[in-house]
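Example 4.3 (complexes with small molecules)
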Amino acid sequence: MKNKNTILLGAHTSAAGGVHNAIYEGRDIGATTVQLFTANQRQWKARSIAQDEVVLFKQALQETGLSHIMSHDSYLINLGGPDVEVLTKSRDAFREEVIRCLQLGISYLNFHPGAALKAPVEDCLKRIVESVLGVRDLFTGKENLKLVVEVTAGQGSTVGACFEEIAYIVHALKDELPIGVCIDTCHVFAAGYDIRTAEGLDKTLNEFNVIVGLDYLTAFHLNDSKHDLGSRLDRHEQIGEGKLGIECFKAIMQHPKLQSMPKYLETPGGPPFWVKEIALLRSFV
Ligand SMILES: [Zn+2]
Ligand SMILES: [Zn+2]
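Answer. The structure with zinc ion bound is encoded below.
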C-alpha cells in the first residue's frame, strides 16, 4: 500500500488568470496532482503560452510539489467527425494543445476520442487515428508527455464508450506515439460497465485487460453519476451521491493495480467539495 499522502489525487482546478493558478488551487484543496485546461475550452482561437507563464507554472510546481499534471483538451475538438472544415479546425486546435503541454512540461493530455455524427463509426475511428498521427512530428521520444484517450459515456454519436473502440485507437497508435487511456468512472458506468462493487470493478478491469491491455490504463477521472448504468448520459455527481455509490470509489482507492495511477475529480461543486472528497478518498487507502 502506498503512503496516504503520496497517492496522486486531485481535481480539475481553475486556470483563470494563468495556468499556475490551477496548481495553487490544487495545493489549497489538499491535492497532489491536478487536471486543467491550458486554454479556454469553449473557444477555437488557439492561445499560445508566453515564456513568463511557463516560468510561473514551473515555479508553482516546485513550490507545491504537485506532479503528474493532466491537461484536458477543448470540448470543441472533434478528431473523428465527417465535416472537413470542423475536422481541420479540430486537428489544428489539438496540435496547439500538444504544443502547450510540451511547453509546460505537462505529463498527460487527456482527449475525447470524437463523435461520428451521421457517418459510420469505423470511419470516425479511422479519422481519429489519422488526426492523432498528425502530431507525431512534435514528439522526438524524449518528451514526458503521454496522450491519453478518455473512455466516454457514449452520449449522442460519441465513440469510445466500449473497450473495443478504445482498443482500436490505442493499438493503431501505440507504435507511433506515447498513448494511454483514462477511465472516467461516470462515463464507463453510463456506458454499461457495472463498477459499483469490488467484484464489478475487477470484472471490468479484466475485460479492459483482455481487449485493450492494462498496461495502457494511465489515469482515472473520479466522478459519481447522476444517471443509471447504461444510460449513456454524461452527468457527473459528487462522490457517493450518485448511482455509482461509495463502494465503487473505495474499491478503486484500495485496488492494488490502481494505487499508483493519478486520479482526478471532475465533480460538481468546486473547491469546497473537492477538499472533502479528496480527504474521504484518501481515507480509503
Ligand atoms: Zn472525464
Ligand atoms: Zn464527463
